[in-house]
Design brief:
It is a single chain. The chain is an alpha/beta fold. Helices cover 27% and strands 24% of the residues. The protein has ten helices and 16 strands. It has helices at 2-17, 54-60, 89-95, 115-122, 133-139, 141-149, 184-196, 204-210, 273-283, 295-304; strands spanning 31-36, 39-45, 72-77, 100-105, 126-129, 153-160, 165-167, 199-202, 225-229, 248-252, 262-266, 288-291, 309-314, 323-324, 334-338, 341-347. β1 (31-36) and β2 (39-45) form a beta hairpin. The chain starts with a helix and ends in a 5-residue tail after the last strand.
Amino acid sequence: MQNKTDEIYMQRCLQLAKNGLGNTYPNPLVGSVIVHKGNIIGEGYHRKAGEPHAEVNAVKSVKNKALLKQSTLYVNLEPCVHQGRTPACSKMIVELQIPRVVVGCRDSFDKVDGKGIEIMRKAGIDVTVGILEKESRELNKRFFTYHEKKRPYVILKWAQTLDGFIDFERSPGTPIKPNWITDEYARVSVHKMRSEEQSILAGTNTAEKDNPSLNVRDWFGKNPLRIVFDKNLRLSKNLSLFDGTIPTLVLTEKEKTPEKNLQFLTLIFDKTVLRQLFLHLYNAEIQSIIVEGGTKTINHFLEANLWDEAKVYIGNTFFHKGIEAPKTAIEPVKEEKISDSKLITYRNTNAD
């Protein structure tokens, strides 16, 4: 019965934590609830990196601090133990003499990784770990992938027709513009997704043919770092990607001087090119990337098994011929209807 009660309050922690999506990088999404005799007396979530953590915000919201010594604190991720831009939460909990703490999942970040739990238990606090553990890890899939696999969480995204094409055949002289397969409602969904991730990548052909902006226009939120493959620096500087309004990273084998909001990363274009990119993004604390390239670019990630999730929008239209969309043998985990389109989600649980 106690576990069921704990699950109810942990679910509330997860709900609160989601409010920080897109704003807490490189920190994880964390929510916290404080309960006294069956009543929630405080709650909070981590809003932004550098600002107070969820546990601190929850404690601050408690009107009668004397009740903390008789309460249970719930949090979906192990309280931190290191002093960064904010104080260590596990030590604060000990100082406040909160007698019981319920944790969703352990934090695998090497500066924490069980140390917060150990500090609280050594102080005599009753610590329960693993309540809604699967859901807690899922919420912070970007954070855990980044720290455990030393690379960003990779989301492949493409739109295809009902007959399986990602683009029609473009003859020389075809205007440079997007070839819309879905309607504006699906595009709002895409822009919402962009606002939640840290970076977005397109291939050379996609940049050349579609002239995408890769920004957040139809949703409120931050623009992701734009990344584009341009091995030989052949792309026109008149493309929207090079308008200087958003930080943009060009992946090339050439040496090039940086410009305003435009950086160049020199890579060796061999079978390790994605790993080279991931190392750069890891060092830059980029925890997630959307790959919005064409079939060729997306297939690089599929073939290397370097992807975690795929979002496939299927528009209510036919091309009859053209460029075939990427394919995966993995079964979908979710299917949604967005206006006249479908959104199918795939998860790769055995990604490298």
